[in-house]
Amino acid sequence: MELDVSRALAQPGQEFPFSGTQAIADQEIYGTIVKIDDCGVEGTFMADDEGNVSVRGRIDTIAHAPCANCLQEASAKVENEFDEEFIRNGDPEDDEIFAYEGHRVSLDKLVMSYAVMALPIRFLCREDCPGFEYTDRTDIPQETGIQYPFAGLRQLLDQIEEV
Ligand SMILES: [Zn+2]
């Protein structure tokens, strides 16, 4: 989303409220695709005498990813607060700053980075998700001719757990 900051530039020191929504592209985090709903954004903006624009406010959305334990769909609330300055005619290639030109401030990069920062490290379908329900470990057939490609891995894991 973009803010038209003409009014703020004409009245430095005066705060102007804004609100809107912004779409956020799917994110790949540690190999997991996280989908993020349209993000609610609200706050205020204010210009200083040099034409730099302070934008502060909050974002609010829901993110979706597979549960870290059982791979069922899980979701998490994503909320964050921001307070950033957009430098007038700053270098748009500089990752350390937010920059803008003319009278339009794009919040795309800000909203995306604050949303990603607020993502949980692990998504869980519910707080006490038990993960995969293993049957009794002695059930694993050894020589039945049925293919259990992960049986060997399971035994290996059992050995590691026993150490
Ligand atoms: Zn789960």
Could you give the count of β-strands?
9
Structural class: alpha+beta
Poorly predicted regions are 142-146
Largest sheet: 7 strands, mixed
Sum this structure up briefly.
The protein is built from three helices and nine strands. The protein is of the alpha+beta class.
Describe this structure in words.
With 163 residues, this protein is α+β, with helices and mostly antiparallel strands. It has one domain (2-117). Helix content is 17%, strand content 39%. The protein has three helices and nine strands, in the order βαββββββββαα. It has helices at residues 6-10, 108-117, 151-162, and strands spanning 2-4, 16-22, 27-29, 32-36, 39-47, 53-66, 73-88, 98-100, 104-106. The strands form two sheets. Strands 2, 3, 4, 5, 6, 7 and 8 form a seven-stranded mixed sheet that branches. β6 (53-66) and β7 form a beta hairpin. It starts with a strand and ends with a helix. The structure holds zinc ion. Zinc ion binds at residues 67, 69-70, 72, 124-125, 129.
Write the SSE topology.
Elements: E1 2-4, H1 6-10, E2 16-22, E3 27-29, E4 32-36, E5 39-47, E6 53-66, E7 73-88, E8 98-100, E9 104-106, H2 108-117, H3 151-162
The structure holds zinc ion.
Residues 67, 69-70, 72, 124-125, 129 line the site of zinc ion.
